[in-house]
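hi support,

uploading two proteins for the ticket. first:
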Amino acid sequence: MGTGGDQPVGTTGTVPSEPTQVESSRRGLIPVGQEIDVRLQSSLSSKTATVEQRFETTTVVDLRQGDEVLVPAGSTIRGVVSAVEPAGRVDRSGELRLTFDQLEAGGRDYQIRGMATQAFESRGIREEAGTVGTAGAVGAIVGGILGGLKGAIIGAAVGSGGVIAATEGTDVELPAGTIIRVRLDSPVQLR
């Protein structure tokens, strides 16, 4: 999890059920520190993941600036496993460090820099398939989808630097459908 007294995050907080507002006076600018909730499209495990392994997520709710949708629900955010430690035989918990580097919104690709700050368990993609419908409908019905969340991932916590660590001496298991809160560490100017 971190050293020097870092407190884990990810054990509290809520997942938005309505569009997230961007607080920026500059049109189309997503500022440093903006948080975006994304849904993991495939499972990740500290037991099997490899460094530089790519993965995809999709945004859970619209990201808006006033009345304008900057990043629609269902947009793709791509990431990479930047570090992995499988659980050891003697009291060592598994760890995954996830970083995010690409945003695809409105048919354009943007370079981003972001890290995981929280992870929430969900019922999974298959159980929610009937609820979700099409990607365009996600924003309108996301409250019902997120109602199926169990809260922070049981047995894992997110520490400084985006490290997701198992808390029970086991491997980190993030099933497809897990909601990950991503904090942007660089501004993104959308065109």
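and the second one:
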Amino acid sequence: MSSLAEEKRYSYKDYIKWDNDIRYELIDGVAYAVAAPTRLHQKTSGEIFRQLANYLRGKPCEVFHAPFDVRLNASDFDDIVVQPDILVVCDESKLDNKSVKGTPDMIIEILSPSNARHDTFTKFRHYQKSGVREYWIVNPARRIVEVYILENGKYGLGIIYREDDVIPVHTLKGCKINLADVFYDIFESDEKSELKQILIDAMRADGVYTEQIQKIFDSVDII
């Protein structure tokens, strides 16, 4: 995820005038271009959204998926505008036709090579500060979900759920997400090259050299 024109700070008033063919997010007024989601990303997001939407049918809370603007500090500088992969809003007064003006009750982000650090550090900090009650970070490559619950203004230690677990949704009493359905076909052959690239990017981010990465794939038949 690359930033654009870092020397200038923007607000939502600037943001809504930009070319709709290119997706951006604003973090403290800095504009970041958002990469198009991968096929694996879309499949993972789509299944989680389906389960949430089925549960919320006829209920007061609403679930949305990207692209849908969330203005975390709309009542202040209005210079933080994000597009979470999935979000749940239970206060209808926060919604207009184009955005959420304030803090969603729940946010879910799906990791991919281009956004991993952004979601796990930058957005994590802003979601915590703005009071998002429940934050999920979904890692399709590892087939895990980290769940963070806001307590006394801070996220506690993340609870890690794995591919066969059923996750209770803290903010939606009685709602559960079945990860077996989310991750059931993640290692089909047409996804292997994408997963390999995710693993390579993660290892490079940790300082592993290209030669070492190749040796790892040569010695372990994982993909």
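thanks. also noticed: Residues 37-185 form a domain with the tt1808, chain A fold (CATH 3.90.1570.10).
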